[in-house]
Amino acid sequence: MGRQHWKKIWVGSAGNMVEWFDWFVYATFAVYFADSFFPKGNETANLMNTMGIFAVGFFMRPVGGWLLGRVGDRKGRKAALTMTVTLMSASAILIAIAPTYEVAGYGGVAVLLVARLLQGLSVGGEYAASATYLTEASAPSKRGFASSFQYVSMTAGQLVGLGLQIILQRNMSEAALHSWGWRIPFVIGALGAAIVFYLRRNMLETEVYEGSGAARDEDRGTLKALWAHRREAFLVIALTMGGTVAYYTYTTYLTKFLAKSAGMEKSTASLVSFCALFVFMCLQPLAGALSDRIGRRPLLIGFAVGSTFLTVPIMTMLKHAGSFWPAFGLALLALVVVTGYTSINACVKAELFPTGIRALGVAFPYAIANALFGGTAEYVALWFKEAGVESGFYWYVAGCAAVSLVVYVTMRETRDIDLNRVSAPTPPLPVTGAQPQTPVLDRRSG
To answer: I want to staple 65 with a disulfide (CB 3.0 to 4.6 A). Which of 192, 300, 364, 368 is the partner?
Structure first.
């Protein structure tokens, strides 16, 4: 890829990293501030309440997906990406200054709720805008590789959050972290968002969008236009279901699971997650590049088969891992399986839609799937734990993956679809793995 391709990928990825840092540190530091906003008592119940607010943010993601997806299709990918980081900066500041229960009663919960609603709006648009931008900004034969940097940057944001947590754990007392130390990452997130705002104001629009003529289409970015591609929209929901549940299980929930269920020290649990996620991040471009050679479906099918049959034994053994190395090995195995989904899901979804509806087509159905499955994953896990049947959650994750497996097996391959199509409807989805009768790129020309 040329210098301009790499520049676009860098700017898009840097902003995405800060966005997801702000999104994930809420879940990462929830174990420290959960008791600050609710009456003292049942620690698990307070954590469930805090994660319930975390889940509420997911239910704003469809609204953000619709609103900012529309902006992305009508005003350009750059405009949408600039708006998302503005909303995220505001939400980080609100959480950083939120009053505790002792100071304002449930007023602090109200501030948290507003902040999570803003974060939901922001991330609802960020995923689709960055997925579309990275896919369109890459060389045609490198779309899988380039779009994999979305999860590289997402994971980098989570790693920075975990790394900051480890540093604070080693340099602050437990009491200080519970009292005020948990506010530090949100202050850092707000400052990072301000820097990204400047970068995105000066970023380049994608050539696919500028040269497509999509900006002249009156129906661009509307629900009417999306309805014309409703089959693809429902496909996005179905193929996201298993991947998002597995992803949030082995990323945001893993640290709490190791601490609360496996009985590990919080610092050890954080270190396990950090090391496993670092390797996971490095695997994304490799898997993305592999999909450019062999196609998207083999990786998706590999993820779904592995997640369906390995989730229950992996989670069962993680609960009894006992120390760092067994837990790290099991967590890494799980994340290697999840890589089959995370490395390419952005480009697969972007490849399903024409240019004039691509941002909204990715954003809205993906946000719905995340609200229903990704955002509730931790709450469902804690509900099973509270009910005394924690293993039920393992089967829930495996079942979601099994549903997505059916979708992956029956969907068409998307690797060679031409991104430059503007508004022509895509062909019906076959029930076999046959290639669609869609104009394709000459892969020899790159």
So the answer is: 364
Q: Maximum CA pair distance of the chain? A: 66
Q: Alpha-carbon distance 62 to 75, whole Å?
A: 19
> Model confidence at 47, in pLDDT bands (50, 70, 90)?
confident
**Within its chain, how far is the Cα of 288 from the centroid?**
16
| Helix/strand number for the chain, H first, E second | 22, 0
Q: Can you tell me the distance from the alpha carbon of 337 to that of 333, in angstroms, rounded to the nearest whole number?
A: 6
Helix axes 252-260, 3-28, angle to 10 degrees: 30
Distances (CA, A) of 327 to 249, 250, 316, 318: 14, 12, 11, 6
pLDDT tens track for 381-391: 989 998 999 99
Cα–Cα distance, 308 to 303 (Å, whole number): 8
The DSSP code sequence of 10-56 is HHHHHHHHHHHHHHHHHHHTHHHHGGGSS-SS-HHHHHHHHHHHHHH
- SS3 readout for 94-128: HHHHCCCHHHHCCHHHHHHHHHHHHHHHHHHHHHH
Single-letter amino acid, residue 267: S
Q: How many CB atoms lie within 10 A of CB 223?
A: 12
Report residue 313's pLDDT band, with 50, 70 and 90 as the boundaries: very high
Q: How confident is the model at residue 435 (pLDDT cuts 50, 70, 90)?
A: very low
Give the pLDDT confidence of 66-119 residue by residue, as tens digits: 999 999 998 889 899 999 988 988 999 999 999 988 888 888 889 988 998 999
Interatomic CA distance for residues 368 and 370, integer angstroms: 5
Question: Region 29-49: what's the mean pLDDT?
Answer: 78
| pTM, to two decimals | 0.83
Residue 327 CA to residue 366 CA, distance in Å, equals 31
What is the C-alpha separation between 364 and 237, in angstroms, rounded? 9
Cβ atoms within 10 A of the Cβ of 348, count? 30
User: Can you read off the two tokens belonging to residue 267?
Assistant: 């610092």
